[in-house]
Structure prediction request, 478 residues.
Amino acid sequence: MGLRFRIFLGMMAVVLCALVATGYVAYRYGVDAEATYNAQRLLRKEAALQRSLSYMLERMGGSVGQDSLALVFTDRICELADVHSLTFSLYDSQGRLVTTSAGPGSPDSTVALSLDARVLESATQGEGRTEIPNVRGGTEVVWPLRTGGGEVLALGHVHYDPRLAEEADWKAFLLRLAPVYALLFLLVGVLGFSLSNSIVGPLRRLSSDMQSNPLQRGQGKTLTYRWKDEIGSLVTSYNALLAQLEESMNARASLEREGAWREMAQQVAHEIKNPLTPLKLGAQHLDRAWRDGAPDFEARLKRYTQTTTQQIDALSNIAEGFALLATDGKAEMSRIGLPQLLQDVVYLHESSGVQLELPSGEVEVFADRTRLMRAFNNLVQNALESAPGRDVDVKVRLTCAGGQATVEVLDNGEGIEEARLERIFEPKFTTKTHGLGLGLAMVRAIVKGAGGRLDVSSELGKGSAFVVVLPQVDPTNG
Prediction:
């Protein structure tokens, strides 16, 4: 459930809760108002009936015999029942029915022939007026009719059916309120949608910017938000953090470049110094032999010439290695028959027993032949030196699949530890006791320049596998 929907749902829930609360209050008000209205209406009708009966009793001299009750009051109570729209009955002092306004077939024709003993006792000796609720959907009231001497002459009995007061009709109230709430629902829906968009929109832009690369926007380009609220504070903090991160990355990149240049300078100085040292010593010895007139001067000159040539070749190899590592110079790219190139590489190491497996058919790649041959030669040479002190079986295998040519250089040497395996392509890193530490870094640079990749896997005690994958050129496409 997204934030936008939760905001919208929350606002709609508030309106719904308000509607439920209003309905409950209206219902309780209606129920209470109806109860109050019916209670007061019943009291008014009781009072009117009592006054009418008391008036008749006064006209009769204040007393009527028990045998004359039906004769005296029957017509009067029927008249009063019609006037007040209720059922009126009269019981004698013993609780026996004397007369009633409920005729045969009427809803109240089941008026009890005698009063309940507890009701009779309460009406005659207790509270006097006795109310009996929930009788056939209405309320019954019994009260004593006394003579002038205070004796109970008869008991009046009224059955009152409640009616709904107009002001207590809570259903009608809610029906009148329904259009208002429908309009309120619509307005709150529009407001909730607009408000949720105004809140979620900037957060989505912020999230999208964070998922992309915000540092590529360039300096001076920041996220904008027009309101100065909590989201505006968040956007401002985000822009400030991006600026700090950009400054930190620029400073770190500068330090890394300076460190790389210093390390490269130290590496070049160290590697050049090694060949120069024997050249200097040889020149000094040759100069001393010339001044001393040594009889073997010519032999010394010849040895010095050979040493100088070797060291110059070493310097040339160093320069070429660094140039290839830095992809310096233009490669002479051409279509190369990969099987023939691998045969030439294996031929150079024929005395070491390097095996070669080739597929049938021509396999061509687009690369610099000299550099690619040097890369494979370096891989084979490393494989042959993977187990100092013993012979190593090396196999070079070429396969083709999916428009790619895959060359595997496999050996059964000592293998490479996993911790070292992650660093063998780094310049200046080597597992040997000699060399520049640039071989595999140079091989990767050559392979990458040909549009391929170089992978490695190794297991201690079982050997290593270097895999070169190059895009294959269709030989039928001239």
User: Anything to note?
Assistant: The CA atoms of residues 242 and 248 lie 10 Å apart. Confidence is low (pLDDT under 50) at residues 429-437.
